[in-house]
Write a structure and sequence with these properties.
- This protein is an alpha/beta fold.
- It has a single domain, classed as Rossmann fold.
- The chain has a four-stranded parallel sheet with strand order 2-1-3-4, with helices on both faces.
- Helix 2 runs parallel beside helix 4.
- Helix content is 42%, strand content 12%.
- It is globular, with a radius of gyration of 16 Å.
Length: 120
């Protein structure tokens, strides 16, 4: 990647996304694009398309997602998978539509031993 390339980090406030942003800055990349949830709902295809059309990212780090601990994953699994599928589908589709050169997608998981004493 060129150091002045437009790089979108979806999920820049999360654990992984904030580390990606720090590493990009440390590597001398100067055109890092971000958007908060208030600025763009990543589950909304029209909003994501509008943002991609306006900002024209060349590279995308897709590290956004709905996450939680074991209790949240146990009590809201359908909500988590739905939100994450929507986020990933809208961003990948917009990247395709607007000619993104490279997209890096990191999936997430929540894995705990079934027989472990709770809380862990």
């Amino acid at each position: 990647m060129k150091h002045d390339a437009r790089i979108f980090v979806a999920g820049h406030r999360g654990l992984v996304g904030s580390a990606v942003v720090r590493e990009l800055h440390a590597g001398g990349f100067s055109n890092i694009l971000t958007a908060t949830r208030d600025q763009m709902d990543l589950r909304d295809q029209a909003a994501v398309n509008y943002w991609f059309r306006a900002n024209r990212p060349e590279h995308v780090f897709l590290v956004a997602g709905t996450v939680g601990g074991i209790m949240a994953n146990s009590t809201r699994p359908a909500e988590f998978i739905f939100d994450n599928m929507m986020i990933h589908a809208t961003v990948v589709h917009a990247a395709y539509l607007y000619g993104v050169k490279k997209l890096l997608y990191l999936g997430s998981s929540c894995i705990y031993p079934r027989e472990a004493a709770q809380p862990m």
